[in-house]
Amino acid sequence: MSFVTELSGRNEQHAATHRGAVGRLAPTRQAILITCCDHRVDPAHVLGLQLDEAVVIRNAGGRVNADVIRTLAALATVAHIEALELEVEVIVMHHTDCGTSRFTTPELAPFAAELLGVEESEVGEHGLDDPREAVRVDVRRLSRDPLVPAGTPISGLVYDVGSGRAEVIVTARGECTR
Q: Which annotated residues bind Zn(2+) (predicted)?
């Protein structure tokens, strides 16, 4: 049996108890979580995130780059079209032992620069080998981006894949805790 067949069966079990769509497009916790696409970092498991609680944006390294900013702009546009009254909190979650931490060699600098949306000479300033610094960099980038409304609460976490614990590095007010 293929994995997709197994997944289809799991979906049948899910559908049997599914409560239906919420009445509106806004997540119930008015949160947006930006995290890595690594299979060890599923926010539903790591943070106990429930269906409908938050929008989850996942990419390589969970990095805030132009694609993430465009996605946030698209979400804001949908909210505007639907006349949703939102006060969204944005949470950035990086993790230990991230595959992107291997992009620190000189030969991979062009690829890392493209991923991050920066010049090659700036790659070292983006914490590829330090998830705590990466969180600080990405929270700072979001807080300064003109497409993110001023005053939007932005927090940063680092999930340790070894211990299973998520540590708050930057609070919703942008204060570094570590």
A: 36, 38, 95, 98
Domain residue spans of the chain = 29-170
Helix spans in 29-162 (H): 43-46, 66-81, 109-116, 131-144
pLDDT at 52 over 90: no
Are the beta carbons of 170 and 142 closer than 8 angstroms?
Answer: no
Q: Name the binding residues for Zn(2+).
A: 36, 38, 95, 98
Instruction: Tell me the CATH architecture of domain 29-170.
Output: 3-Layer(aba) Sandwich (3.40)
Distance between CA atoms of residues 159 and 149, nearest Å? 27
pTM above 0.70, yes or no: yes
Strand order, beta sheet including 89-95: 54-59, 31-36, 89-95, 154-159, 166-170
Could you list the residues known to form a binding site, using ranges: 36, 38, 95, 98
Digit-coded pLDDT (tens) for 118-132 = 999 999 999 999 999
Q: How far apart are the first and last CA of the chain?
A: 47
